[in-house]
Amino acid sequence: MRSEKEMMDKILEVAGRDERVRAVFLNGSRANPNAPRDILMDYDIVYLVTEYASFRAEPSWIDVFGERVILQTPDDPEIFTSGCRKNRYAYLMQFEDGNRIDLTLLLPQELEAYLREDTQTVLLLDKDGRIPPLPPPSDSSHHLRRPTQQAFTACCNEFWWVSPYVAKGIWRRELPFAEENLNAGVRPMLMQMLFWACGVRHGFAINLGKHGKYLERFLPREDWELFAASYAGGSYEALWQALDRCGELFGRSAALVAEQLGFAYRFEEEERVRAYLRRLKDLKREEQPAGTQKGEREDGER
Fold it and tell me: What predicted TM-score, i.e. pTM, was given to this entire model?
């Protein structure tokens, strides 16, 4: 595996001999002074370029960085029909030796906006001496944001609203439906509430990392173990247990956030939904009524 010095030397060498590249920036965890260091950290690199049409016209130009396992170009409108960024074009490159470079080409008209986006930005090269001085890199732009009462209430409502969808999917033995609603509906709200709970415990000037990857450091051990146990193992009984653990953890975290921030929490909403889930779990599953077509529903599940 190439060392950090070898990788950075290559990144700067390529930029230095290409007149289209006018500046180089480093972002991401390697620019975060508080991030734990390991050999699998990505190199989040930005090349400020005069134009990028000629780069795109010669796809092999990135081969100089090494032998790749896989490449993705998320700003290619021919591949990704939504989410492509204007005036930016990225090459996400995973290499055979274990290194990875996420390299973005940035047009000059985007420079001002780019420099405002992320406090984890380090200037590595400025050929023209036109980049304004940057403050020391920090992860402050990734710190938690204190919720409003409205955001808190909406999070709670969505969590308890989607939970019965999971239960119905389990009861009907519709595993994909139940799993999708658990992981795409319930869990994001649980994560948000856990983030806020960490904020009231430790102050909101903390960075939990992408997808909450540092969450274990900030949760009480009991809460972390309950959270870890909330991931289902592929059976219907495991799904019931996961849903119950999510509900227990969400409820006590929401109560903590409400108390510490002076918010109103609808305890009765939680109690009614959890009682409904228990009744549904205990409900004997009967045969499908005659004349009902497979897939027909009288309710409005999404």
Answer: 0.79
